[in-house]
Amino acid sequence: MVKSHRLRGEGTTFSTRTRTRTRTRGAGTRPSASVSSRPGIGARRALGARADGARRNQSHDGADGPSGLHTGIVAGRGTRSGRILPRVLTSSRGKWALWAATAMLSATAMLSATACSILQDTSDLSVGASEVEQDGGALAPSHCVDGVANIDETDIDCGGSCSACGPSAACAAAADCRSAICTGGACAEPTCTDGVKNGNETDEDCGGSCGACASAKSCGVGADCVSESCVGGLCGTSGCADGIDNGDESDIDCGGSCPPCGTTFHCVAPTDCQSGVCAANRCQGASCADGVKNGNESDRDCGGSVCADCDDDAACNDGGDCQSGVCSSGVCAAGNCSDGRKNGAETDVDCGGSCGGCDNGARCLVSGDCLGGSCSASSTCQPVGCADGALNGDETDLDCGGSCAGCPAGGACTLVDDCASLICESSVCGESSCTDNIKNGLESDIDCGGGLCDGCAAGARCAGPGDCTSNVCDSDVCAAPSCNDTVLNGDESDVDCGGSCGDCALGQTCSAGVDCSSTVCTGSVCVECRTALTMVRDVAAVAEELGGGQAWSNPSGATAIDAASASKTRNAFQPPQITRMLAVRDFAFALPASAEIQGVQVEWHRGTGTSVGSVSDSAAQLVKGGNLVGTNHAAGGFWSPGQWVSYGGASDLWGATFTVADINSSGFGAALSATVGGFIKNPKTAAMDGARITVHYIGPCP
Question: What is the three-class DSSP state of 465?
């Protein structure tokens, strides 16, 4: 290791180097140290030569002066134990002593005497050969570090026997320059095109910061090589199985001169891809619309097991690749009407289209594709018929007219018989109607029957009972209604009864009572006889007063209906008064046991004296079992002199229920009370003279 130091003000430099070598002495070896010096050149060259650190890869640990010294003289032969003595040069005293020695050398130029006076603790100091260590560990003459261009140097401390010079330094030959290029007496900068291995190149003009090297060229790492493979310091050859994206490959081991790449691999051109399609620098999968023959296509975008069949003249492997089904000499050929294949415009094998009609059962598109002229709705040739879904034969319209059934309104026609309506106007079938005086449409006879028109009269043609007004179709002829045809027809209200036929039984339908044997038609149903039985009790009737109020003076007078005023129930009431309920019962009704009570009507013969406008009804109720029941049927207005007034009716049960036993009981009857108004000092007269009750019921007819 070399340390250079310069004495300020004197211009004197000295250099020290410590180098340990192993030399063979006798049977063994031991380390030896030497101090390089050139006393003939002067102290500044002996110990002060400036080292070119970058060129020799040497380091400098400190600045000029004692503090910059790192190491010093190495003890050799005669030192203690033959070891290096760092004490002198690493101690403070030793460093300042060396600095002083340097100063003395500048004055006396006597290296050996000065060194001996400084290194007082050393003995047997040996000075080796006059040489220094150059870059890479090689030894060079000491003049290569003296800071002067001398001896055979071409520039300061470089060229000749010294290390090669850097760019722009003087040179005499290429060997004087690190770039190995001496041009015009000066070393040139290394370049990647100078034909010399220099700079950080691993081989001539390649590797390092230059381009990649070809195979067999020197390299340090894979990046130095075109193949990106550096093995044993030499670039390998690019290959299609080396696992590296190199050479002209577009991706690892594929593309370029290697086999084409699969889908999604990187590509530069279509030829890099198995599919022949490179988009956005990625290989695409084969498709039937990429404009390239790929996959198992027999030609571009056609043929194979995936794409559509190929047109004529396209390449093919077999008939399955061709639309025509014919592959001849590797080319799709045009089909013909005798090639045994369905191709071209044929609808079936060698028929249909331009190849003539097909037999029944073959495929078709129009009736013209069929020999029989009938292509069904299922696109199959079939025999001509009136239900083949084709206009053929003598039909005037689709499956109608001619020998087929008549056409509906709007269908084409030639004759009236071509139309279901038997109306053909301007070659178009007209609508049938129930007033066109023609048996058409669904009619069973002229303008009747068929469900749309009215029923036919007796004697007209019919297909069923519904075609006839009598609802009787006998041997396809409508029969006249009768009272024993077991059909509801004519003016009958129910089957064979009512109207002009016999009376209907109970429960049968009726229009009026005359339709019923019971003469009673309720809710359009025949029911038993409705009977009204009126009973007037004026002999031995029971009259009594019920409830509170003003008593009557002669209650029993209400049971007799006559002109004798003495027999009447009459009172001169002092107004205002409400009378007691005057009841009349035990009317001796004898209704049949099967009777169904429908209503009760009560009539009272009541009146007043000359004080008209003062007496009115207070309450009017029925009596059942001797008790008042039902709702109050009191009439409005004032009583007049003797007259009959009616309460209830044929369908009024007064809000109560009654059985036959209730009516036939002696406890059944009616009751009435009055309200007497007017001035207190003017008495008013109220009288009742008899009552009668009518019970309405349904029961056996007389």
Answer: helix
Residue 643, class by beta-carbon neighbours within 10 Å (0-12 exposed, 13-18 middle, 19+ buried)?
A: exposed
**What pLDDT was estimated at residue 689?**
79
330-385 pLDDT, tens digit per residue, is: 999 888 898 888 888 889 999 998 888 899 889 999 888 988 778 888 899 888 88
pLDDT at 491: 94
Residue range 121-165, pLDDT digits in tens: 333 333 333 455 555 555 668 889 999 989 999 999 999 999 999
Q: Could you tell me the two tokens for 407?
A: 């056409």
Residue with tokens 């009864």: 497
At a CB cut-off of 8 Å and minimum separation 6, what does 599 contact?
648, 649, 650, 651, 652, 653, 695, 696
Report the alpha-carbon distance of residue 210 to residue 191 in Å, rounded: 8
Taking phi over 0 as left and psi of -120 to 50 as alpha, with beta for the rest, 511 belongs to alpha
Backbone φ and ψ of 176, nearest 5°? -75, -10
Tokens coding 293: 């023959």
End-to-end CA distance of the chain: 163
Q: Is 137 helix (H, G, I), strand (E, B) or coil?
A: helix
Tell me, what's the pLDDT at 600?
A: 96
Distance CA 271, CA 257 (A): 9
Rounded to two decimals, the pTM is: 0.34
Contacts of 103 (CB under 8 A, 6+ apart): 7, 10
Q: Who's near 305: CB < 8 A, 6+ residues apart?
A: 296
CB 297 within 8 A of CB 287: no
Q: What is the DSSP letter of 527?
A: E
Pairing of the two strands 669-676 and 186-187 = unpaired
Using alpha carbons, select from 153, 203, 195, 149 the residue that is nearest to residue 176.
153
**pLDDT for 643:** 83
Query: Is residue 576 reached through a cis peptide bond, with omega within 30 degrees of 0 on the bond before it?
Result: yes
Residue ranges in the chain whose pLDDT is less than 50: 1-130, 538-540, 563-567
Q: What secondary structure letter does DSSP report for 158?
A: B
Query: Would you state the pLDDT for residue 29?
Result: 36
The per-residue b/e assignment along 141-164, b for 16 or more CB within 10 angstroms, e otherwise, is bbbbbbbbbeeebbbbbbbbebbb
Q: Identify which of 527, 615, 628 has the alpha carbon closest to the alpha carbon of residue 571.
A: 615
Whether the CB-CB separation of 189 and 167 falls below 8 Å is answered with yes
**Three-state SS for 630?**
coil
Residue 692 is given by DSSP the state E
Burial readout 406-427 (b: 16 or more C-beta within 10 A, e: otherwise): bbeeebbbeebebbbbbbbeee
| Backbone phi, psi, residue 149, to 5° | -80, 100
> What is the distance, to the nearest Å, from the Cα of residue 154 to the centroid of all Cα atoms in its chain?
87
Predicted pLDDT of residue 680: 66
For residue 200, count CB atoms less than 10 angstroms from its CB and return exposed for 0-12, middle for 13-18, buried for 19 or more.
Answer: exposed
Contact by Cβ (8 Å): 409, 430: yes
CB count in 10 Å sphere of residue 679: 11
The per-residue pLDDT for 571 is 67
Spatial distance between the Cα atoms of 512 and 518, rounded to a whole number of angstroms: 11
Token reading at 317: 């492997």
Asked whether 49 and 13 are in contact (CB, 8 A), the reply is yes
CA distances for 560 relative to 202, 553, 639, 648, angstroms: 160, 15, 19, 22
Q: Which DSSP symbol is given to 644? A: E
pLDDT in the model for residue 587:
86
